[in-house]
Amino acid sequence: MVNIWERFRFKTLLRFLGPGFLVTVGFIDPGNWATNIEGGSRFGYSLLWVITLSTIMLIVIQNMAAKLGIATGKSLAVNIRDRFSRPVSAMLGLTIVLACVATDVAELLGGAIGFNLLFGFPLWMGALVTVGLETFLIVSQRYHRLEIIIMGFLAIIALCYLIEIYIVKPDWSAALPAMVVPHLNRESIYVAMAILGAVVMPHNIFLHSNVIHSREWGISEEEKMSQLNYEKADTLAAMIMGWVVNSAMIIVAAAVFAKNQAAVTSIEQASATLTPLAGPLAGFLFALALVFAGVGSSVTSSMAEVNVITGFLGKPEDPRTLLYRFSVFATAIPSFLIIVLSMDTYKILIFSQVVLSLQLPFTLIPLLMLCRDKKRMGRFASGPAEFAAAIVISAIVIVLNIYLLYTTVTGA
After folding, report:
1. Any idea what the CATH number is for the domain that residue 137 is in?
2. Which structural domain range is residue 61 located in?
């Protein structure tokens, strides 16, 4: 009987795996590539701890976002609109829409650069192909099939980077301690904040609270509580996979670029420099993974953007409506402008992730307030330990933001 029960539980777990992995694709997007390459090439292994800290923070926050969706049957965007006054809701909605624009800049630029590296497409054409694939996947596929496709993308990205780690042979005696020992100074704070923003992405918090509804959680609190461990397992497994890939990005950059004192000023240059230093296979895997990251993350960012825009406006999330279709494309416009104007894509990618970090408090604080609301959450309301952990996480984000602004303004 025990073995049968264990098999049943494992099969049930497989049914619930998925939402967390959609979120994971979002935080190994091209913005992460830019920040991780910058961090690894300039500071070696020393910023690996930021990935570890960010992932721990992410596990707590994403679990709270998923619980909010399960307990209320509504996304974070809808809950904010219902809970807060119209001016506060409008202000919070505006900040997350701006964060979505920054996210789309990273996703489309990354996809465009990936297609340029693999096939020689000009950036504007690569961006169009990325948007085309993104739209096709969203419109033509059922959700669960789309989920499987995105998980396949994630597996390809992870495999590419694990092979690259094998190729470059990093200094593990330096890398392993750096994963847990903090090291930060005035020179690295900007990149550290960009890495933090690239991992704990605010739009992903909204996304998780919405896509969690793709599973049948039951009607009563008892039914939902009995299945909550499956959500936790999905979130934990997905976030750990994201930690592995993001850490691998920094490790490869440190082992190749920092070790050889090769300055990197663009993703294209990173690919061009990687090939002679680590071999043509490493360069090919880099470009291939970037294409899958760009397309996959653009799909999930569009899903988040649609939910944010429709949720804050109090409109249904219906693919047949004009608002839904507009929401899929609206935030892509700045990306095309950046490409057409031939702006510095590498700096834009890093800056976009800093924008995400600066927005985080405007997502975290409402999430904490909602998850602590026992009327809204019932038995799912955050307990003292979870709430205290979330407060510490929010405080870390806010303090780092203040430090970033201080060092940027004063140059101190």
Report:
1. 1.20.1740.10
2. 2-410
The three-state secondary structure class of 76 is helix
373 phi, psi to nearest 5 deg = -80, 105
- Kindly report the pTM of this predicted structure: 0.85
CA 163 to CA 53: how far, in whole Å?
25
Query: DSSP state, 255?
Result: I
CA distance 227 to 144: 19
Tracing tokens 């721990």 back to the chain, one arrives at 56
| Binned average pLDDT, 10 residues per bin, the chain of 412 residues | 49 81 84 84 94 91 93 93 94 90 80 86 86 79 78 89 90 95 84 78 90 82 81 91 92 90 77 76 86 86 89 86 79 72 70 77 93 90 92 84 66 56
Please count the other Cβ atoms lying within 10 Å of the Cβ belonging to residue 375: 6
Sign of the C-alpha dihedral, residues 221, 227, 233, 239?
Answer: negative
Cβ atoms of 185 and 404 closer than 8 Å:
no
Q: For residue 151, give the 3-state DSSP assignment.
A: helix
Domain tally, the chain: 1
Structure tokens at 40: 């690894």
Which spans in 262-315 are helix H?
Answer: 267-278, 280-313
